[in-house]
Write a structure and sequence with these properties.
By secondary structure, the chain is of the alpha/beta class. The protein has helices at about 1-40, 85-95, 120-140, 155-160, 185-195, 220-240, 245-255, 260-265, 275-285, 305-310, 315; strands at about 50-55, 70-80, 105-120, 140-150, 165, 170-175, 180, 255-260, 270-275, 295-300, 340. Strands 1, 2, 3, 4, 5, 6, 7, 8, 9, 10 and 11 form an eleven-stranded mixed sheet that branches. The longest helix has about 40 residues, at about 1-40.
Amino acid sequence: MASDSMVKNIFTSFFKALFGVIGLGCGFIVLIIMMSLLFSKPNAVQHQTSPKVLPDDRWKLEIFSHEAPTILRVDISGVIGLDSLRKEDILEQLIESQDGVLKSGQVKGIIVNINSPGGIADDADAIYRMLLEYKRRYKVPVIAYVEGLCASGGMYIACAADKIYATQDSIIGHVGVLMSPPFFNFSKLMERLGVESKTMYAGKDKDEMNPFRPWNPGEGASFQRIVNFMYDRFVGIVAQHRPKLTKESLLEQGAQIYPAPQAEELGYIDQSISSFEDVLKNFATELGIHDDYQFVQLERSNFFEELFGTRAEMLWSSKIEHRLRLPGDLDPDLYGKTLYLYHP
């Protein structure tokens, strides 16, 4: 009996401590929310990004300054159109670089840091146009620095830069368009298995490229017209911004990739380099701010993400996604979209 009583006391003490900790945690979160509401200014613009000071060309880290001339880094690392590389995310950074924690006119130049296979065509085109508009609106020079891969949509965005630099082991190019996913046809297999399918639809060609019936002659031409249009636009943009490349040469080369020295020779980039610090130093000198500047990247600020080290919605979301990804399979978020993507 004494042992049963002891076990009961242990469990009682454990659950009291457990629920006490949970209660304190919930109370702390509620307190933080109330304080943020209490001290927030009504009708004030809520800025979504915060500055991260990066090492300058001398490998020095300074305290963030609201006054110092600033070179802004815009990071294009990963698949364009996914995660934090959507057009909305880049637009947010560009807007808040002139109307956020950085004062209007404080940004003197932008370095677009690229390590990307490309991605969704719409996002790549939007980011390209945003950078052009930023240059026009604020008279701010933009250069691109490639460290790793600058293919397809990455190359598309790089064309907005005044100059493109790349490390010597970087890979550049792949001017082309892909429609995802590839189309398959199972009609012969279904016939062999004795399986039939019927799609209910209205409107001519509404079930175009239906994989469960034989395709008609010329079927898919509308999709190919879209791909051709976007390819012509891509080629035209590269030829417009890269003087050594012409539409004819790009059409002849096709969607090829090149090591940086060969890409420089062909005209995809301006220079293959061995030191980013030299690029940053020379850029600051060209801007006339070499002796006194800061190198800054704007990051999306999220209190709960900083506090708990995860996405805030994960704390209360009951949705769990299970995805089986085969080697070489595209992210499902890319399906049904036209892509400027290098996908070997």
